[in-house]
């Protein structure tokens, strides 16, 4: 048996029922029913964020960064709960106190990967949902994950790919999205990185590049009707993402003011704060906020450094 039980309400949503997501009725081979643990109302059109399981710090950081930005604007984050980029996307949504949906390859009581049980439970506790087209007790099989990807693409109004090598299962989600006329967004990567070959190939084939926060917010405005000016104004008023607290008392900023450090070096420096995953998530959150506020920048060698202002 893979995984263990999750705490939360269980639902079986029939295709003909009122709770069945309208956007999933038009996917290739629409599921006859959905099995859900958590909040069935979380199954609304959102942003799918996907990427490599064996992700680099860059890929995990981008997944967390853009997922958080979308979640803070009320957009549901949809992904597959896998290791790497998927997990960071879900964590960022939960951290933003927003809904996120995990589509599993097997049954909702056969969690995979099993070490993500705590993450899946936090998704439910934050008002999100764990969903599958498979009956309770269905063990996940390799082919089920590719089939699952059509549901991720179907529930999404746009798909963001933050990192993908070649070959990559991420392409199946992108293909499904393109066939349904959905927008596919891609974060570019270094042309020398094997982890970004698939991402960059999608850009070459016509996907929309996300090169900074502004282009991402433009795409969110186009897909979801959000106004970037409203989001910027909210941040300027000291809301989520405000810069004052980062500037006034950030431990990570203090460390980078002394010397440039990589994400791994920052994790090692603050290792006493808790488990590796918790420290890594905290480091990502702090560097994302500080970079968005123009207080730090990534150097060509990948290290973070404080921005010196004249």
Global outline:
globular
Numbering strands along the chain, what is their spatial order in the largest sheet? 1-2-6-5-4-3-7-8-9
Q: Find the count of extended strands (DSSP E, 2+ residues).
A: 11
Q: Beta-strand percentage?
A: 15-25%
Helix content: 40-55%
Evaluate the radius of gyration. 19 Å
CA-CA gap between termini: 60 Å
Helices and strands: which structural class?
alpha/beta
Q: Outline the low-pLDDT stretches.
A: 227-241
> What is the helix/strand order?
EEEHEHEHEHEHEHEHHHHHHEE
Number of helices: 12
> What's the story with the biggest beta sheet?
9 strands, mixed
Mean pLDDT rating: 86
Offer a few descriptive terms.
single chain, alpha/beta, nine-stranded mixed β-sheet, two-stranded antiparallel ribbon, 12 helices, 11 strands
Task: Describe this entry's structure for a reader.
- By secondary structure, the chain is α/β, with parallel strands linked by helices.
- Helix content is 41%, strand content 15%.
- The protein contains twelve helices and eleven strands.
- The strands form two sheets. A nine-stranded mixed sheet has the order 1-2-6-5-4-3-7-8-9, with helices on both faces.
- Helix 2 links the parallel strand 4 (77-79) and strand 5 (100-103).
- It is globular and about 60 Å long.
- It starts with 9 loop residues before the first strand and ends with a strand.
Short overview:
41% of the residues lie in helices and 15% in strands. The chain has helices spanning 57-71, 85-95, 117-125, 142-155, 170-179, 197-204, 213-224, 228-236, 244-249, 251-258, 263-269, 276-292, and strands spanning 10-14, 33-38, 46-51, 77-79, 100-103, 129-132, 156-163, 183-186, 208-209, 296-298, 304-306.
């Amino acid at each position: 048996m893979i995984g263990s039980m999750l705490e939360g309400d269980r639902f079986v949503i029939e295709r003909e029922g009122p709770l069945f997501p309208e956007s999933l009725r038009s996917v290739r081979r629409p599921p006859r029913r959905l099995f859900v643990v958590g909040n069935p109302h979380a199954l609304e059109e959102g942003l799918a964020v996907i990427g490599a399981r064996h992700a680099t710090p860059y890929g995990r950081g981008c997944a967390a960064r853009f997922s958080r930005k979308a979640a803070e604007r009320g957009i549901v984050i949809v992904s597959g709960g896998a290791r790497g980029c998927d997990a960071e996307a879900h964590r960022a949504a939960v951290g933003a106190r927003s809904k996120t949906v995990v589509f599993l390859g097997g049954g909702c009581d056969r969690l995979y990967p099993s070490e993500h049980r705590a993450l899946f439970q936090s998704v439910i506790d934050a008002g999100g949902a764990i969903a599958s087209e498979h009956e309770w007790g269905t063990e996940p099989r390799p082919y089920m994950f590719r089939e699952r990807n059509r549901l991720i693409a179907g529930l999404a109004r746009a798909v963001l790919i933050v990192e993908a090598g070649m070959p990559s299962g991420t392409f199946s989600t992108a293909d499904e999205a393109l066939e349904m006329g959905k927008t596919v967004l891609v974060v570019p990567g270094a042309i020398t990185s094997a982890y970004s070959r698939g991402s960059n190939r999608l850009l070459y084939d016509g996907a929309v590049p996300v090169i900074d926060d502004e282009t991402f917010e433009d795409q969110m405005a186009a897909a979801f009707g959000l106004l970037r000016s409203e989001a910027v104004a909210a941040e300027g008023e000291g809301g989520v993402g405000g810069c004052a607290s980062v500037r006034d008392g950030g431990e990570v900023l203090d460390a980078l003011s002394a010397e440039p450090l990589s994400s791994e070096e920052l994790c090692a420096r603050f290792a006493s704060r808790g488990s590796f995953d918790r420290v890594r998530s905290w480091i990502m959150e702090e560097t994302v906020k500080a970079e968005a506020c123009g207080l730090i920048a990534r150097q060509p060698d990948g290290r973070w450094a404080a921005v010196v202002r004249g």
